[in-house]
Amino acid sequence: MHSASSDKIDALEAEGRAAVAAASRIVVKVGSSSLTTPEGRIDANRIRDLVDVLAVRRTAGQEVILVSSGAVAAGMTPLGMTHRPHDLASQQAAASVGQGLLLAAYTAELARYGVNAAQVLLTVEDMMRRVQHRNSQRTLRRLLDIGALPIVNENDTVATHEIRFGDNDRLAALVAHLMRADALLLLSDVDALYDGKPSDPGTSVVDLVRDPTDLAGLDIGSTGKRGVGTGGMVTKVDSARIASQAGVHTVLTSAGNAGAVLSGERVGTFFAPAGGRRPSARQLWLAHATAGRGSLVLDPGAVRAVVQEKASLLPAGVVKVRGEFSAGDPVDLRDEEGAVVARGLVNYDAVEVPDLMGRSTRWLAREMGPSYERELVHRDDLVLLGH
Questions:
Q1: For position 204, what pLDDT does the model report?
Q2: Helices (H), the chain
Q3: Is 0.85 topped by the overall pTM?
Q4: 233-245 and 168-178 helices cross at what angle (nearest 10)?
Q5: Can you tell me the distance from the alpha carbon of 59 to that of 283, in angstroms, rounded to the nearest whole number?
Q6: Apex CA 157: angle with CA 152 and CA 158, to 5°?
Q7: Do 325 and 346 contact (CB within 8 A), yes or no?
Q8: 309: which residues sit within 8 A by CB, 6+ positions away?
Q9: How far is Cα 5 from Cα 324, in angstroms, rounded to an integer?
Q10: Most confident among 8-17, 71-80, 190-199, 246-255 (mean pLDDT)
Q11: Are 318 and 376 in contact, with CB atoms under 8 Å apart?
């Protein structure tokens, strides 16, 4: 942990900030509070200021993907809402109205630079399926290839409480990984991560986070200043950790500092990318962008095989099935005490599993047909949790 007042910059931080400035592919996330007035209307000046920074990068040859909040906030005033609605139906109605207004504002500002805005609305449901997952990646790549600037948001109009990213900070981190971005900027109304409440005397900026141990003991608030978004500092830090785990150079700062960060200046908090092999895109999506539709309870031998031996889950190790799910859905794998040890994409419907439990795949193939000689969850479609 380092204070912003220190004159000497850490070599790791200096190298990382230079990498952000030189990034060829950048994902930028901007929060609702950075785009709207206190009344909830779109702030044209803030949109213009952000586009000025991003469009210059795009026209210079850098690839930029913008993950933008603000749809719900932008739709509040036209619908006569004075506060962000709490019920999902009203949030979706506001998003339906606001998303068009938001995109129109971006389109107009980007047009000044001859850059096309491209709307991309994603849902967790899309990302849980192999075909849709690859489709999203292919579409974004094509948009970058033709010089457009993709503007990504969660499709709030169809998302449900149970199946959603939850906030655009997490979505941005996952998109950065999906697209193998070099850098991620998490922009909000807070200029950096602090080692306590920013208003308290003696509190200082955390310039560098090397690894999760640097975050131990920090007093991280849970809400933003404005209350028009869903994410707070906790979600931003979690998202920075997801991105750094994926090998992405990440900076957390305010929207007004976007240009300075992309110029390599020492503003905000830099999260160093983790070393070693990047997790696969599917593993990261499973861990952070999905929720189990149901669960399979494993005996101790199966838990050991999955966790320690990194093996696939076979029907012989399952003692109980809970919930309703279909083949291809994500399910939680639990031990007999109820702790979730992993999550994976299941190969059978929930109604089929009781007849398979405790049986070897060889027995199942002989008695029920060759199509049953397969894993409940293949190790390539499985990610460990809490380990």
A1: 85
A2: 11-21, 44-59, 71-76, 88-111, 124-128, 130-145, 168-178, 233-245, 258-262, 281-288, 300-307, 361-368
A3: no
A4: 10
A5: 34
A6: 100
A7: yes
A8: none
A9: 55
A10: 246-255
A11: yes
| 3-class DSSP state of 386 | coil
- Run of H or E including 208: strand 208-209
CB 256 within 8 A of CB 188: no
pLDDT digits (tens, 9 = 90+) for 139-179: 999 999 999 999 998 875 555 544 445 578 888 988 998 89
Which strands sit side by side in the sheet containing 330-334, from one edge to the other?
318-323, 294-298, 330-334, 340-345, 382-384
What pLDDT band is residue 284 in, cutting at 50, 70 and 90? confident
CB 55, CB 61: distance < 8 Å = no
For 235-258, how does the pLDDT look when each residue is reduced to its tens digit (9 = 90+)?
888 889 889 888 999 999 999 999
52 neighbors 40 (Cβ within 8 angstroms) = no
DSSP letter assigned to residue 52: H
Nearest residue to 302 (alpha-carbon basis) of 326, 318, 323: 318
Q: How far is CA 278 from the centre of its chain?
A: 16
